[in-house]
Amino acid sequence: MIRIREILLPKQILLNVKATTREEAITMVSHSLKGDNRIIDWPGFIHCLGECERSGKINIGLGLTIPHGRNDSVTSMVMAFGRLAQPISRGAASIRFVLVIGIPETMDADYLRLVGVLMRAFREDHLRKALESAKTPEEVLATFEKGETRLT
Predict the structure, then answer these.
(1) Is it the case that residue 49 has pLDDT exceeding 90?
(2) H/E/C letters for each residue in 76-129?
(3) Average of per-residue pLDDT across 103-116
(4) Is 117's pLDDT higher than 90?
């Protein structure tokens, strides 16, 4: 079973993203993955994220947007986390967090488990507040791990 620490690396946790649009925020967070050796086709990865974006299925409430791509541009699951310096309004809701995820076609079960962990972290007030106030990437990882251990 793959764990959050294997997917989300400290250097891919951005705690003060200064973006004024959702698209700009996604681009900034995505670029923290550039050069990651788990991504073997950067243009393919970005194209796949764009396809997800066009489908409109990436804003899920709770201040969260999750652009993700499922294709062969990644050899194993990758993730980047961004917390916006200022929330971005999107209609009645706002976005405060961006999670960019790349998923190989063959990792369905691991992907579904990861989504469960992430949803727990954002639905539980104390975990979401911990993500809002985290001062270091390590604190973000520890918060996600709290949600993760409750599922296992």
Answers:
(1) no
(2) CCEEEEEEEEEEEEECCEEEEEEEEEEECCCCHHHHHHHHHHHHHHHHCHHHHH
(3) 85
(4) no
Percent of the chain at pLDDT > 70 equals 90
Question: Both tokens of residue 2?
Answer: 């793959």
State the chain's mean pLDDT as an integer: 88
What are all long-range contacts of 89-96, with beta carbons under 8 Å and residues at least 24 apart? 90/22, 90/59, 93/59, 93/61, 93/63, 94/63, 95/22, 95/25, 95/59, 95/63, 95/64, 95/65, 96/63, 96/64, 96/132
| Pairing state between β 93-103 and 78-90 | antiparallel
Does the domain spanning 4-151 belong to CATH 3.40.930.10?
Answer: yes
Close Cβ partners of 117 (under 8 Å, ≥ 6 residues apart): 4, 144, 147, 148, 151
